[in-house]
Structures are given as C-alpha cells and as structure tokens.
TrEMBL record:
Alphabetically ordered keywords of this record: Coiled coil, Phosphoprotein
Organism: Sideroxydans lithotrophicus (strain ES-1)
GO biological process, one term: cellular response to nitric oxide
Full protein stretch here: 338 to 593 of 600
An example Gene Ontology molecular-function term: cyclic-guanylate-specific phosphodiesterase activity
UniProt-recorded name of the protein: Response regulator receiver modulated diguanylate cyclase/phosphodiesterase
Domain EAL per the UniProt entry, residue ranges: 1-256
Organism classification: Bacteria, Pseudomonadati, Pseudomonadota, Betaproteobacteria, Nitrosomonadales
Keyword Cytoplasm appears in the UniProt entry: no
Length: 256
C-alpha cells in the first residue's frame, strides 16, 4: 500500500494520536506548558514518528485535515484537563506553513476553540511557528498573528536560531516566546560557539520581553548552565520524553 493511501486511511480510522512533552520552569521545575507532538499508531508499522510522514502530509496537502485534527484534539484535551480540575494547562501546537496560509486560518482556529468551550484568553492554546513560516509574506503573517493575538492566543518561535529572523520583524510579531533549537543545547557545555549563540538568544529574548525556552535538554549539566545563563524554561528528555495523554495527566497532577 502506498504511504499516502495509508495516511488517508490513518486519518479516517482515527489512528493518529497526540503525545505531550512538558515545558518546565527553570527555577522551580514546575510544568508551565507542554508541546503536542503528532504520532501515528499504525496496525502494520507500529508507532510512527512525524519525521517519517510530515513531509508527505505536506506534499499531498493532507497536512490540512491532519493539522485540523491536531488542533481539535489539543482543544478537546485542554477542555478535559480543565474539567478534571487541572488549571492553567497550556498546550502548544506545531503548525505547518500550508495550514497557516489557509484563507481565514485565524477564524478557523477561534471557531475550533469556541466549539470546545475554550476562551482563548483564558485557556492557552499556543501556536509554534518556524522562522521560515513567519517570514513568508510578512504583511499577511502579521495580520493573521494579530487577529489571533487579540483573542488571546500566544505564539512561540520554534527551532529558533536555525532560520533567518530579522530582529526588526521579531519586534513586529506578537510573539511570547523563543524556543532555542536543540542543536545549540546539545554541546552547550563544551562548545564556545553554542554557548555564545544561546547567551545571545537569551539576551535578545530578555530585551524584547519574550520568555526563552531551551529545547532538547538532556543532562543536569545543561540544565544548570541554562539556568545560570538566565533561560526561563526548558523542554527535553531530562524532565520527560513526549508521553501519551495518561502519563501527561499523571505528570500534571504531580507537578509541584
Ligand atoms: O516529535 P518529534 O517527535 O519526532 O517531532 C518531529 C517533528 O515533527 C518536529 O519538527 C515537530 O515540529 C513536527 N511535528 C510534530 N507534531 C506536529 C504537528 O502536529 N504538526 C506539524 N506540522 N508538525 C509536527
Ligand atoms: O522541531 P520540534 O522542536 O517541534 O520537535 C521537537 C523534537 O525534538 C521532537 O521530535 C521531540 O521528540 C524531540 N525531542 C524532545 N526532547 C528531546 C531531547 O531532550 N533530546 C532529543 N534528542 N530530542 C528531543
Ligand atoms: Mn515544536
Ligand atoms: Na524545535
């Protein structure tokens, strides 16, 4: 069976699921949010990670219905956690450029939140955008971001440092946080260039009033260094891998 056909069936058969990876505060280790990461639970292939199928979803346009499913699922889960008395859950959803460029993307996000009884200003759905997505048609990007921002949606820039963000654009986008790409975190303690880049991103974030989250934090040493450098939060295997919903619920219930 062609992978494309399998992916269409996966959507129809509801074989996609979201795993969640906590973002934690650097000082107190409290969970301050989480990133939703798409997984495909295939009968034939087992658990498939997105690196293996996102490119094809994008090529075929299937990312549109799948991306909408992701948003709905994240909203459904935010609703469920709220109903279970877990407050202030903040779910970050990754967006593809194709999705973001859909006519009235902003309206469709707000509609999905409304359908789940979520007030965008109260119950954080955060959207993770890449630098290349942001810089493709800046005028329209700002328009879409502003519409959603005014309703209370927050934005972060994913994989920050790997793209081409001009600092002047950064100031014009209503962004709340920068996520330092994990490639700079990996060798932080031994590589002076990485250390310089990370410290520059933290300084930039601070001067623009953005929170800075480090990705791919795997060791206590990296965590301690990032903390000394003034990083606000971290995400990575040190605290938790991306986990299924039941485990995430457990983590939330037991977060300091
Ligand atoms: O979860 P890792 O677990 O393997 O994710 C690999 C890549 O897939 C990451 O770059 C991540 O941004 C992307 N990704 C994960 N979930 C989604 C999603 O729901 N939508 C989009 N567009 N990308 C996703
Ligand atoms: O591109 P994006 O940042 O959205 O994707 C995050 C990717 O990083 C996912 O594939 C996720 O599973 C992976 N990831 C999360 N934490 C760690 C970590 O501590 N180490 C490594 N190597 N990968 C991680
Ligand atoms: Mn991401
Ligand atoms: Na990233």
């Amino acid at each position: 069976l062609k992978l494309e056909t399998e992916l269409r069936q996966a959507l129809a058969r509801n074989e996609f699921e979201l795993h969640y990876q906590p973002k934690v505060d650097m000082d107190c280790n409290k969970i301050v949010g989480m990133e939703a990461l798409l997984r495909w639970q295939s009968a034939e292939r087992g658990l498939v990670t997105p690196a293996e199928f996102i490119p094809l979803l994008e090529e075929t346009g299937l990312i549109l219905p799948v991306g909408e499913w992701v948003l709905r699922e994240a909203c459904k889960q935010a609703r469920a956690w709220q109903d279970a008395g877990i407050p202030d859950v903040h779910i970050a959803v990754n967006l593809s450029s194709l999705q973001f460029r859909q006519p009235d993307f902003a309206g469709s996000v707000l509609k999905i939140m409304q359908e789940h009884g979520l007030d965008p200003a109260m119950n954080g759905i955060e959207l993770e955008l890449t630098e290349s997505l942001l810089l493709d048609n800046v005028a329209r990007t700002i328009d879409t971001l502003n519409t959603l921002h005014e309703a209370g949606i927050r934005f972060s820039i994913d994989d920050f440092g790997t793209g081409y963000s001009s600092l002047s654009y950064l100031k014009r986008f209503p962004i709340s946080s920068l996520k330092i790409d994990q490639s700079f975190v990996q060798d932080l303690s031994s590589n002076r260039d990485d250390e310089s880049i990370v410290s520059a991103i933290i300084a930039l974030g601070r001067s623009l009033g953005l929170s800075v989250i480090a990705e791919g934090v795997e060791t206590a040493e990296q965590s301690a260094q990032l903390r000394r450098m003034g990083c606000d939060g971290m995400q990575g295997y040190l605290f938790s891998r991306p986990v299924p919903v039941a485990e995430m619920t457990y983590l939330l219930q037991n977060s300091a």
